[in-house]
From TrEMBL:
This is BTB domain-containing protein. Residues 98-168 form the BTB domain. SUPFAM superfamilies: POZ domain. Pathway: Protein modification; protein ubiquitination.
Length: 254
């Protein structure tokens, strides 16, 4: 097949050089359909843009323009992300205006951090900082006895930058999930379940699910559960199933 798109030397083809092969044809249709689908979704999401027809992408020239637009958007987002990341992480590394000390277990070296950031990025820290025993004067210390120094640093890196290298996650996943487990309570368990589900953090998800099942009465009648159920119907199905299995286990053991 003399395809003008994928042949290495189109000039040696006989004029009018207007044949394309099945794969190139399918590929072109596929990418045009995909872009139109994405554009329609975006317009529906916005609910405003009725002027542009939804099948605005008709040719491969449109495709190339669309890809180049996306590339520009990606560059802008990358700049924004690195701006946000650099600011907070530098403040942590250089100890700029820190107002709380975090102390790992075994009397490890404490790490100065920022209350506002911890409370906004982590429900667990928010609860700890809100609780009376931690409403301490500036530069007071919270002890996280379940974590060693290296694990604490990883947790902070994640909270400050929004990401953590895969090998660090794998190395510390157990300790970090234990830390979360010790701090689980009826008011944060649904948040922990939601977050661990989004992050595919399997062991933490199991821990949170077990906690919820064991404290089902407190949680099922809370206002938070109504809100949670609307947002996470799939997790409610999992909670229901886990609760039934737990009830069954109790009956068998009687
Ligand atoms: Zn081809």
């Amino acid at each position: 097949m003399d395809c003008v798109v994928c042949t290495s030397m189109p000039v040696i083809l006989r004029p009018p050089r207007n044949t394309i092969c099945g794969a190139c044809y399918e590929g072109a249709r596929g990418i045009i359909n995909l872009i139109n689908k994405l554009q329609t979704e975006k317009q529906t999401e916005k609910g405003t843009d009725h002027h542009t027809p939804s099948n605005s992408c008709k040719t491969l020239v449109d495709v190339s323009r669309w890809v180049s637009d996306r590339k520009d958007t990606e560059d802008v987002l990358k700049e924004e992300v690195s701006f946000l990341r650099a600011g907070f992480f530098t403040a942590l590394q250089d100890q700029i205006h820190t107002d709380i000390q975090l102390q790992p277990g075994n009397n490890g070296l404490s790490v100065p951090a920022h209350r506002a950031l911890l409370a906004t990025r982590s429900q667990i820290f928010k609860n700890m900082l809100d609780s009376d025993e931690c409403k301490a004067p500036p530069m007071d210390t919270i002890t996280l006895s379940e974590l060693n120094f290296e694990e604490l640093e990883c947790l902070l890196e994640f909270l400050y930058t929004g990401s953590l290298a895969k090998e660090k996650v794998e190395k510390h996943v157990y300790a970090l999930s234990v830390a979360a487990d010790k701090s689980l309570n009826s008011s944060n368990a649904l948040d922990v379940l939601e977050i661990s589900d989004i992050c595919s953090y399997i062991s933490l998800k199991e821990t949170a699910l077990n906690f919820i099942v064991k404290n089902m009465e407190d949680i099922a009648f809370s206002v938070r559960y109504d809100e949670f159920a609307l947002k996470n119907p799939h997790l409610c199905v999992q909670i229901t199933r886990a609760s039934l299995m737990e009830a069954k286990k109790k009956i068998i053991s009687l």
